Protein 1
Amino acid sequence: MEDGRQFKKRYVFVSLTFLLLSVTIFLLPAKYDMTQKQARELLIDATDATRYISSDDLAWILMNKKPGYLIIDVRIKEDFENYTLAGAVNIPFEDVLKKDEKGNFLNEDILSNENIKKVFISNGGIYSSQIRLLLRRLNYKNIYVLEGGLNKWFQTIIKPVKPEPNSPSSELELYNRRLAASIFFGGTKTEISVTPASNGASSASSVVKKDKPKKKGGGGC
Amino acid sequence: MGPFFTASDEWSFVLALVIGIAFGYVLESAGFSTSRKLAGVFYGYDFTVLRVFFTAAITAALGLFYFDYLGWVDFSALFFNQYYIGATLVGGAIMGLGFVIGGFCPGTSACAAAIGKLDAMVFIVGVTIGALFFDLFYPLYSEFYESGNMGDSKINEVLGLSKELFLLFFIVFAIIAFYVTTKIQQKVAQKTQKY
């Protein structure tokens, strides 16, 4: 009988411990989100050289209509309507990580599609890089940034600078390629309207040929 | 933290050996190397096996939960076997029958054979022959074997409960099982004392 009672005590103790541990789970604060990248990992990722797609590469991709790429313009709607790259979709910076009432990302379908490379573009490269970092932190894959943004796109593809005659042949070749790309893209969209300045509603209709995007009022750097 | 070794790592064999020895030692210490222990669950005179396995399952579940919470184990990275409902039911019934008739499960038979039990050695021979026959006639029942695949579905998901709530229910259920089996065991012991 003595043995039986001790045997029971032991069982009561183990049972209570199990119960306590399982109830404690409900009282614990929300778990740290392991799906997010850790700081160190993120730092390495943020400076990863492969995050960029150069304007030359992107021009080649667009000219050859390479499948598997989606260009996402993160500038404001007006800027997007004024000028963007062929086939680009507009998801303004603030809307990229917008959630619906259920707490899911509105653009989840695009973001989580690992079969396409998402190339983010902005005027400079700051906003697109910020978006990339946010998305990489959430472990989305195949996120790229147009190096130098649309500013560099204009400098290199739309209005390439002619190198000196005594420049190395590689530079001249690059220039020739850019010139061809310039004709290609210029041919499709030779006129680029400039976003009105903050005070200039009247200049909304002004159309300027291949102007630099610096005047744009939207995001960028 | 973790995984310490990947499946392809040659060190995983060494780790498996160490864990295997520890497992065998614990089985033997708990008295599982005797066929009476396993058969006892069926005849109602010894529910140690049920208690031990329930306790092990709860300990592992609680441990996994806390380890996951502390970030030591990534729960989402764990491997779960595919669940085939028909094959599981039939396989479970055959295995249960084997437990009662043989008095061993594959693990405990190896443990008992290691300490020189003849019945366990015969059991292992039987298991090997059974596995060979299974393989030989596999085409006959391969269709059934692979039917009813429910993926790596988890019972709490099927029931629509959260992991935490299911664990709580499971523990309560286990405690009830402990209590009921103890009562059955006492009754059977009283009965056998009478004669």
Note: Residues 11 and 144 of chain A are 59 Å apart (CA to CA).
Protein 2
Amino acid sequence: MIGNLPYFAVAALVIFGLFGAIFGRNLVKIAVAVSLVEAATNLFIIALGYRNGGSIPVFTQAGGYADYMVLPTPQALTLTAIVIGMATTALLLSLIMLLYRHYGTLDVREIRRLRG
Amino acid sequence: MTIWREHLPALLLALPLLGAFAAPVAGHFGSRARNVWFVSITALTALVAWGLWQQVSASGIVVYVMGAEHSRLTLPSGMALPVRILLEVDAMSALMAFMGAIAALAGALFSVRSMERFSGLDQFVALYLLLTAGMLGMEITGDLFNFFVFLEIASVASCGLVAFWRDRPEAVEASFKYMLLSTVGALMVLVAVAFFYGRYNTVAMAGVASHLQLGLAEKAALVFLVSALAMKCGTVPMHMWTPDAYAEAPAGVTCLLVAVSQAALYGLFRVCFTLYGASLGSSAVAWALIIMGLLSMFIGVTMAVIQKDVKRLMAYHSVSQVGYMLLGMGVALLVLSDPQKMAAYGAMALQGAVYHLFNYTMYKGLLFLVAGALAYAAGSRNLNDLGGLGRRMPQTAALFVIAAAAIAGLPPFNGFVSKLMIYESSFAVHPLLPVVAMVTSMLTLASFVKVFQTAFLGPEKAALREVQEVPGFMRGGMALLAVVVLVLSLFPTWSVGSFVEPAARALMDRAAYVGAVLGGGL
Amino acid sequence: MRPLSVIVRTVCNAFAWFVAVFGVYVIVHGHLSPGGGFQGGAVVATFMALLLVSHGATKCLGWVRTNFFYAFEHVGLLTFIAAGFLGIGVTFFYNSLALSGGLFGSAVPLGPNGGSLNTSGTIALMNCAVGIEVVGGLSMILLYMVQGVFHIDKPTLRGKEEAGHDR
């Protein structure tokens, strides 16, 4: 049961993040909530690669150093996901700055010129 | 040339990427150098896509492994599952890539002239080519995580392009909404890919497809994938971003955005038919797709009839046309495990959906380019400000008539053939389905008659006395799409036989897709 | 708003250079220890962030022009795609430099060892390229955001108004 703790953390983070993104009223809070969901997804992928008792996946033909390694592929996938998350966060924050300049407010209920 | 034939799939991705990275360098030498670079890269990409389509239709599925000792070595030294990133191009992928490359070329030809007045064009060209690379990557990849990466590349690039006119507050608002939805959707796709990795220790599509057994994790992954990809196409419960983003983007970009959302629809085809296929179990997903298709058709067209902004009207029509494809796909998915019904009407439904996808990308791109031409010439997107432009812009009016007749499904044009296939096949499932589709078609015709009459016919407005026909490059981009629409309309049997039927057969043939990769090695 | 205290500004100023060196270490050793192009590039971009914190936006924008970082970005991107094309004789992104004795071409030592820097071919080259690119990109993002927050107009844009509407 204790080995499943990362997955409970992932579920909690996803729920908090989605709640903030759907019901948030401040634009910056929405961006932070999306960032939270990204963090949860990255944690999920990394936690999937862990093997109990595995060593770090850096040596070639390590012999008696360890029986098996932790899987390296999810680490590469998570790195790519983190980079993508950084790009989307940067774009979201820049758009929020532009929206503040145009509308004068960060309240999501006021930014509704496109309707119907 | 024969040396490059082996590397065509990699070239299809490398060319737009190289173009995007070198666009600011080309822009350093002046705007003419940048325009030449822009058009030549998109034209070369279209040529490579055509070459790839010919190679696939001649010799079957093409597999390309990035960084291996030989381009088809998927399982090196006795491994059971592929380890490198692989591109797997079957007839459906090749058709989608060809279609996307043509849309990109048309949009590029149009943008060269229509965006002249604005600054920041180096970054515009770089983002446009990145968006093309992302779309093509989504269509030819054989690896689920690679699909996610290209999906995100396309989303970020398209959000940057939608917000290009950043001193219009509506454009920035549209881009923010689109970015938010895209990010959450793509994260759901990533969670689904993580589910697959956790269960099968591979992210290659062929690997997952060959080992797939329907359990709780796979069902959850299916729900995530279907909802996220349907959101990217503009399906009804999640369509709110489509009218905003399509209307506020520059016209050449909207032409490409249409092709990008079709790449997401291609992803949906891949997930439902190749990844899951006959092991889908119950018909819940098929009926969900059919119902989403019906809702999209109806809500899209009813919201479109009342619009005053030309591009927003056309964007709502986008939502409704995607409904047709989802209807055809749902019908085919419903009878996928029953070979008799599949031969009777299921295969026709799938062909109708794929043919409608091809037609839609072409005529919808043309419609958006015409709307951009109207905005360029007359200075406004609002139908209340336009009037009597048919006399001053006859060629644009003729191109609009071709596109509007195609979308409304009038008989000589290609929209009619694909819609007929969808009507006939959905009638065999339930008689109500083609009724909704036909009502949508009539309302589509009504709204485009309204647009034509308001914008092109009627008395000339005083403010529009100085309007001239749009420049040659813009007409060239529109003419390219119109020529493809006409070819598809005048030769329907040839088009269906050589483009659509191999694509539909490739979608149904799950074993061939898996065997091309796992049969592996030289 | 009160300005930041002297301690914060001095420490940031001093540590910025150490952070830059550490970032370059992380980039170059990407194929041996955790790190690599993006991670090291992000660490080097904190150099720019620490300088912005310690000296203030106006002063920093007076020192660097964003064109400097554009050059970083383009050099990095073009090197990356060129490294992909290096092995095109075999496949795209083929690692033609590994185990070939030239640049980054030594053999990988087996078993637990300290790690040899001269190995892994195009992987190390692409790490450096991505590192340079990320330094340029993230520093530019920081500079543009600081300009946007404090409404500092660049002198080159004045007089060249952007027409943002359809007409």
Note: Residues 119 and 165 of chain B are 10 Å apart (CA to CA).
Protein 3
Amino acid sequence: MNQQESPFDRNLERLIRSSFGPDTRLTPSAREQLHQRLSAALRETRRPKEFPAGILALFSSLVLLLAATNVLSIWDTSIRLPLSFALNPVGLLVLLNLACLPIASLVIILRRKSCPRT
Amino acid sequence: MGAEYEDDLELARRVSRGDTDAFNKFYAHHADLVFGFIFHQLNGARTDAEEIWQDTFVAAIRMLPSYQGQGRLLSWLCGIARHKVADYWRRRNVTGGSALTALPADLRELMDSGPLPDEVLNRSALRVRLIEALAELPDDYRFALLARYAEECSVEDVARQLGRSYKAAESLLSRAKAALRAVLSGRKEDFE
């Protein structure tokens, strides 16, 4: 193979050798340091979006308000609330909440599987 | 417009999805060459080169979802690195790219004309152009050339590392050199 080498081949070999000499190589510590930094950056980009705090607060307030109204209506019989009307939304919310549990669990499991730990 | 480099695009997608194996492969295949690309443009300023190299990869991880496979992943990374290096020189009010324009467009002619003098061979611009050209090659071509000439492995060792016969490795090296020659002469389509 060497006997038929053209000037191009010889120059190429010299050029590659000089371009990738020992002084141009990464140190193992620099290599490892960046590997860790990138792994962390990758995990950061994969972090699922947080549930918006404002909506969470709104839901919580709504549930608290409905619960308080119900407790008051039970405690004080003078409060003339159309009970069936007041309780229906609570019942609906509870049902919705329960229905969301298996779906949420499934989503969490799938996300964890698609984002393996490093 | 479809992706030209489906394998690179698939790798980028897997890295973006958080696949650890894909990330390790992405890093192992590209870290050293990108560092060399930066190191030579900074004329050997190692500490600064390491800093820019880190910034390049951090930016690349963020931008990976935008990679569409229109060029090789390594070329894409070199593109990001080139911008970072330009910023570096701009901050120092130095025109770092002037040395690159001093080279002939067809490097093949220069390299065909006879043994290159050491002062030409040692020019950073030539080394940067070599790395850019290597980035255009398929992975196995690049690996074979670097193992044979940078690591100074024998053809038998290259064959063993690639899991091929001696003859197949020899043929691969020959094709890799022809491909590099085509890229350096600006005729990339000659090997595609």
Note: Chain B has eleven helices and no strands.
